[in-house]
Write a structure and sequence with these properties.
heterodimer; A: 9-stranded antiparallel sheet; globular; B: 4-stranded antiparallel sheet; 6 strands; elongated; RAVE2/Rogdi (chain B); Protein rogdi homolog (chain B); WD repeat domain 72 (chain A)
Chain lengths: ~1050, ~260
């Protein structure tokens, strides 16, 4: 099963830099997709008036994106494939923002073309790729596995390619031009079978064109005769039948052609590297004569180009431009020329259907239709683009500078440390800061407790809290490095400067902790990388700089600190290695080439301090896998670091367990090219529900018991799983009071302010089970500051972010008044961490998505119009069956807001679960109707969901009618599964369900103001009620027509009840009574 | 360096210097880079025009170090001897193309623009260098099915495998003598993995037949122009990095320059 964590992005005023390297418009002309040098994919909405608005940014690649292409027939599935400099490929669903498939191959693609031949092909089609390898590679569009290669006589890299569909000869061919200027043509449709059988497929024709640097080759489908070849110095038109040259046009000096497309018969558009484009008419006076191939050369004068129109980008120029042309003949689509720049600017031109020159025959300029950048969206939606602590430290420079230049979150203290442009460092409580930033309540902002550390004279470039992962360090130490080349060691509690290291080596770029197995003398040592590529070894306890290694010519890629031998091994980006002796400060060895490789490869991955000059290796940041994920993937570029992927893989397992130890985490993200630091708030849903369960006082005791017996069941079957949940709780330092069996652990509580030693393995957790046994009784818990309030505040904050504010005033009032969920200050940028390596975040422009759902000034947090439909569907789907449920619902809703919050939350968790089920399971649910196979499938599904307490956690409210609730859940699950197949976003589903449930709550509240008593019986006599349930259930079964659900229910319930008895009594004794 | 500490006069001077760096120095370095890389690219002699007769011929005499038992004479038609050289050549040409696009007329406005260009160029250059310094590790079946073994005319005897590769400045020719492993053999069949050079005793399966390497002959000869090319790559990489470092010194000013 996948794991996904809802996230909320808190952007700053500066948009993250997005240097466009690839751009495409989807077939429906509603989305622009761009890929960047930083490795992100950005989705932009394109309105029917050609207005652009940023929608979503997708993290997942670790290197610069080289190309984008559609990966399916777009009407069926809105999938786009991206490829990167280091061989990664991802298929994205551009509607939901999810990564569908990903892989890493040893090929770097320059371009990809989707090919599907519906009547002769099985599967989802092929991706025809070329790039920095010989010939053409065929990749399966679904699995991303390599199917075959198209080979040729003189194999070389391919520079450009096009697929030729000819209706006349009923044959698809592939025409490609190699780097040496050899044009090659392969039969596609007639070689389908030989490709599928992996037989050798050679080119059908090959001809040297005598031009290098070909940028594009295009076939004219209107005439089915002309072939356009664009090279950097000229463009040429050939006769496709005999490859005779019809005309050549050279470019102006100082310009380079970059690509071209056929607009219509005898009409071409050619664009340049510097953002110009030209539309030519081919005057075809003598074309008929060129049928005679032998005379081809003589007749090349017979076709000549006439310049009709041109486009220009005017100012804002920045190299290089990536341009494309979308030629749609169907209404209401446009012919669009589009370009993306390194500065992140997108420009669109609407090319008229019949371009014409001016009356005097001189070329006419086609005006720019739209031009847009990410920053435009950030400026427009400035309330959304407010940094996390912007209200504390207003910068003097206005929006020119990002305020926060580096930050670190300390989970154990729930402290967010932000270093600023002006050298100040702010320390604030994490959750409070997030609430103050997101929620409407003004008093939160004013009362935010914070501490300011003054010490740096200019920008704070990096921060490190060494105690976070390693108990060797004093818990009060906080390190900061600055532009002023100093490293300051602070006391985080008092704010005093303990020591200031002046390095005089340019801005400090990175601070790293020394490895675990150190000799005592190197115990409190950190390494510091400066921008002049020097490495300083600082001893915090002794307050001295042990070594400052300054000889490195290239940026530092890897550092190994060998405390046993007293050596510092530094690997640089040019693959050279420097070995320093720490004691004497001398350079022991400097190696390049093979020896350097050998030295570097002899060092285990885990021993590295740095993977590249920017980011710490995963082992160092096990604390939170997302930190590692982010740092490695989002802003690193241009490194084909095998090591990196290795560590990523190896640490994946680790990540799973130590996912997030608290329900709420702040994840700071630092981009590479600018200072647009932003923060991502992560909510661990399951954790949150677990904690809420444990805190419910009397009101939800019933749910407690339910949760518990579920855990017990799991505990019996899989101790492993149980240990996991348990472990998570423990590491986070929360008191989990649910589980009777672990009472001993929680007995030894620790005084709150001692930052108790938390052994490292606890956060590592690879062999968590063993450790659980050994550590259960001995280990202390830093329980300190965690209490019920934090958990409920977290839950409320999440609900605040999810609720569709502004849709219905009554609902809003209910939430604020009854549930004490605060209104949002501005719409939030939601996001989702999925599969541990992909992150999608909404951008401030997402509000404009649906063409302004509401007026400017009213706050609206509706994710899309679709949410309303979904919500109604949901109501319809659940209402009919559980009409009589209202009675029980009342009880719960009437009692306490906290319970409603809990209920709403558990719904969200349920959706999260269903969306994350493997698609195989989802498809099974669809076939749930077949009675004979249902049993197993349902159980399968049940297994997926029941391993998860909160699913049951929400049941108790209809305890007396469990049957109907399960029944409702079945249809609910089907509905949600259905949604997840329809590329509906998980947050859309969450919001729709929230809306529906709140609406329902409201109606029931209106109906019955007084709450009835039945809940009390549930509380007091768990056992008896359960028995009663059983009987009532079986009675109810008579009424049910749907056989499959019933038998499943019987199957799953009866053993549960049996198990429940002894255990519940246990809980009763320790918890309730 | 520290923007906040310097006086306004100092700051003006620094900005002037940065402007000079972007407008003058960067172009000078780019020109120098282009010259070096063009020189390197000439070594790879791209056969422009592709008129078959005009392709240059080159002969290499390969020998086993210190011995005279086996000698190889290679005559090259064109340069497409092995993929490594082809790839290196293409990488260099891509780097040149990147540089060509920003000639003297191009006006660099921000430091990060230069850094991005340098990153792209360095990526191509380090790939070009790596292609020459790191020979591909191939498995024996891969060698057997590669074009190298097949291109001989008359065809090689079936018990001979040939592999060419470039290792730094050396052209290496490896000749594997094979013997067929009978199905009845008591030997423990264990297929060998990928390697640059396989040792006698390595076993593999190809075309439903099992083989064992009985003898290995390795011949090599120094190709002087490869050495030149490697030197050019290293020098250019250093130039790129130095330019990046110069730009980085002014990093605090990036934010003041509009994109």
């Amino acid at each position: 099963m996948r794991v996904s964590i809802p996230a909320v992005a808190v952007w700053g005023r500066i948009a993250p830099s997005h240097s466009i390297t690839a751009i495409m418009i989807t077939d429906d002309q509603q989305t622009i997709v761009t890929g960047s040098q930083e490795g992100q994919i950005c989705l932009w909405d394109l309105s029917s008036e050609l207005k652009i608005s940023s929608k979503e940014i997708l993290f997942g690649h670790t290197a610069s994106v080289t190309c984008l292409a559609k990966a399916r027939e777009f009407e069926k599935q809105p999938y786009v494939v991206s490829a990167t400099e280091n061989g990664e490929m991802c298929v994205w669903n551009v509607t939901s923002g999810l990564c569908i498939e990903n892989t890493k191959l040893p090929y770097r693609h320059t371009a990809i073309y989707y090919y599907h031949c519906s009547f002769r092909m099985t599967g989802e089609g092929w991706l025809l790729c070329f790039g920095e390898y010989q010939d053409v590679l065929i990749i399966d569009a679904k699995t991303l596995g390599v199917l075959h290669t198209l080979s040729s006589q003189s194999s070389d890299w391919i520079n450009c390619m096009c697929i030729v569909h000819s209706a006349r000869i009923q044959e698809d061919s592939l025409v490609a031009v190699s780097v040496t200027g050899v044009l090659k043509a392969w039969d596609l449709s007639s070689s389908l079978t030989s490709i599928q059988e992996r037989q050798n497929v050679c080119e059908k024709e090959s001809k040297s064109l005598g031009c290098t640097n070909c940028r594009a080759v295009r076939f004219c489908t209107y005439t089915e005769r002309l072939l356009l070849v664009v090279s950097s110095i000229c463009w040429q038109v050939y006769d496709y039948c005999d490859f005779s040259l019809l005309c050549t046009e050279f470019c102006k000096s100082g310009q380079c052609f970059a690509g071209g497309e056929v607009l219509a018969a005898y009409r071409l558009i050619i664009w340049t590297e510097d953002g110009y484009s030209y539309i030519y008419q081919l005057l075809n006076s003598g074309l008929s004569k060129s049928i005679y191939p032998a005379d081809g050369k003589v007749l090349k004068e017979t076709v000549y180009p006439h310049l009709l129109c041109f486009t220009d980008v005017k100012e804002n120029k920045s190299f290089p431009f990536v341009m494309g042309f979308m030629n749609e003949r169907k209404e209401p689509f446009y012919k669009i020329l589009f370009s993306g720049e390194a500065s992140g600017r997108i420009t669109l031109w609407h090319v008229p259907d019949v371009p014409a020159s001016t009356f005097d025959g001189s070329p006419q300029e086609i005006p720019i239709s739209t031009t847009w950048t990410l920053q435009d969206n950030f400026n427009k939606a400035h309330s959304m683009a407010e940094g996390i602590i912007d209200h504390l430290c207003d910068s003097k420079d206005g929006i020119e500078n990002a305020v926060v230049t580096s930050s670190v979150y300390i989970p154990s203290l729930d402290k967010l440390v932000c270093g600023c442009e002006n050298g100040e460092i702010f320390i604030t409580p994490g959750l409070e800061t997030a609430r103050a930033r997101l929620l409407e309540n003004v008093s939160l902002k004013g009362n935010l407790p914070h501490k300011v550390l003054n010490g740096h004279s200019s920008r704070v470039t990096c921060l490190l809290y060494p105690h976070g992962n390693s108990v060797r360090f004093d818990p009060s130490w906080l390190l900061s490095g600055g532009q002023d080349s100093t490293v300051i060691c602070w006391d985080i509690f008092t704010g005093k400067i303990l020591h200031r290291f002046s390095l005089q080596s340019g801005p400090v770029t990175e601070l790293l902790r020394s490895p675990e197995n150190c000799k005592l003398q190197y115990h409190s040592v950190v390494c510091c990388v400066c921008s002049d590529h020097s490495v300083a070894v600082l001893h915090l306890q002794k307050k001295v700089c042990l070594l400052h290694a300054r000889k490195h010519l290239f940026p530092v890629k890897k550092i190994k600190f060998d405390p046993m031998e007293g050596l510092l091994i530094v690997g640089c980006e040019d693959d050279s290695v420097y070995v320093w002796e720490i004691e004497t400060g001398t350079l022991e060895r400097h190696e390049t080439g093979e020896i350097a490789k050998a030295i570097l490869s002899s060092i285990g991955d885990s021993e590295y301090l740095v993977v590249d000059s920017l980011h710490p290796v995963s082992q160092e940041s096990k604390r939170n896998k997302n930190v590692q994920y982010k740092s490695s993937s989002s802003y690193k570029r241009g490194m084909i670091s095998y090591n990196l992927t290795q560590t990523e893989k190896s640490s994946d397992k680790v990540m799973d367990n130590s996912l997030i130890q608290q329900p709420f985490t702040v994840l700071p993200v630092k981009p590479k090219w600018n200072n647009a630091n932003f923060h991502v708030l992560l909510f661990d849903l399951e954790k949150l529900v677990d904690l809420l369960l444990s805190y419910q006082p009397c009101g939800l005791k019933s749910s407690n018991s339910f949760h518990n017996y579920d855990t017990l069941e799991r505990a019996k079957s899989t101790t492993e799983k149980r240990a996991l949940t348990l472990k998570r709780n423990k590491t986070a330092g929360f008191t989990l009071s649910v589980d009777g069996q672990v009472d001993t652990v929680y007995a030894n509580q620790v005084n709150r302010d001692s930052n108790t030693i938390r052994p490292l393995e606890e956060s590592g957790g690879i062999k968590r089970q063993k450790k659980m046994k050994s550590s259960r009784k001995t280990k202390m818990q830093p329980s300190g500051n965690i209490d019920v309030n934090i958990t409920t505040d977290t839950a409320k904050l999440l609900l605040s972010c999810l609720l569709p504010w502004g849709v219905d005033k009554e609902i809003d009032d209910l939430c604020v008044g009854q549930l004490d969920i605060l209104r949002l200050q501005c719409p939030v940028a939601f996001g989702l961490v999925s599969n541990e390596r992909h992150l999608s975040l909404m951008l401030p422009g997402w509000k404009c998505t649906d063409g302004g759902v509401l007026e400017e000034h009213t706050l609206s947090n509706l994710f899309s119009k679709r949410v309303l439909d979904l919500s109604n569907k949901y109501l319809a789907a659940t209402e009919g069956r559980t009409g009589e449920r209202d009675g029980t619902v009342d009880n719960v809703y009437g009692t306490k807001g906290a319970e409603i919050i809990f209920f709403l939350l558990s719904r969200i968790v349920l959706i999260n679960r269903v969306f994350n089920m493997p698609s195989a399971d989802t498809s099974q649910i669809e076939s749930l109707q077949q009675p004979e196979s249902v049993h197993n499938k349902w159980q399968n599904m049940e297994a997926a969901i029941s391993s998860f307490p909160s699913f049951y956690g929400e049941l108790p409210r209809n305890k007396s009618r469990r049957h109907s609730s399960d029944f409702g859940n079945a249809s609910l699950l089907k509905l949600i599964c259905c949604w997840s197949d329809q590329s509906i976003k998980i947050i859309e589903a969450m919001q729709a369900v929230l809306l529906a449930e709140v609406q329902r709550t409201m109606t029931t509240l209106r109906k019955t103001a007084v709450c009835r008593e039945p809940l009390a019986t549930v509380e007091n006599g768990n056992v008896s009620v359960l028995k009663h349930d059983k009987s009532s259930n079986s009675a109810n079964f008579q009424d049910v027509e749907d056989a499959p659900d019933r038998c499943v229910l019987e199957e799953s319930e009866s053993p549960d009840d049996m198990k429940a008895h002894p255990w519940i009594s246990k809980v009763c004794s320790c918890k309730v009574c | 360096m520290a923007a906040a500490m310097v006086s306004s006069a100092e700051r003006a001077v620094l900005e002037e210097e940065f402007k000079w760096l972007l407008q003058e120095e960067v172009h000078a370095v780019l020109k120098q880079l282009q010259d070096i890389l063009k020189e390197a690219s000439h070594r790879f002699a791209l056969p422009v025009g592709g008129s078959e007769g005009a392709a240059k011929q080159e002969s290499f005499v390969l020998s086993v170090a210190g011995m005279d038992q086996v000698k190889g004479v290679l005559t090259l038609q064109g340069d497409a001897l092995c993929q490594a050289i082809q790839d290196a050549r293409n990488h260099v040409n891509q780097a040149i193309y990147l540089l060509m696009n920003r000639d003297v007329n191009y006006h660099f406005k921000t430091g990060s623009e230069v850094l991005k260009l340098m990153d792209a160029v360095m990526l191509q250059l380090s790939r070009a260098r790596n292609r020459l310094t790191t020979p591909a590790t191939l498995t024996l079946p891969e060698i057997a099915s590669s074009g190298l073994t097949k291109m001989f005319s008359p065809a090689l005897p079936p018990d001979i495998l040939v592999n060419f590769y470039i290792n730094l400045n050396k052209l290496c020719l490896t000749l594997y003598q094979l013997h067929v492993l009978q199905p009845s053999t008591t030997k423990n069949f264990k297929p060998a993995g990928g390697s640059i050079l396989h040792n006698p005793g390595a076993m593999f399966e190809f075309g439903n037949q099992r083989y064992e390497v009985s003898h290995v002959h390795k011949m090599e000869c120094v190709v002087p122009w490869l050495n030149d090319a490697l030197v050019f790559f290293t020098v250019s990489l250093q130039l790129c990095q130095q330019l990046k470092d110069k730009i980085s010194v002014f990093s605090s000013y990036w934010n003041y320059k509009p994109h």
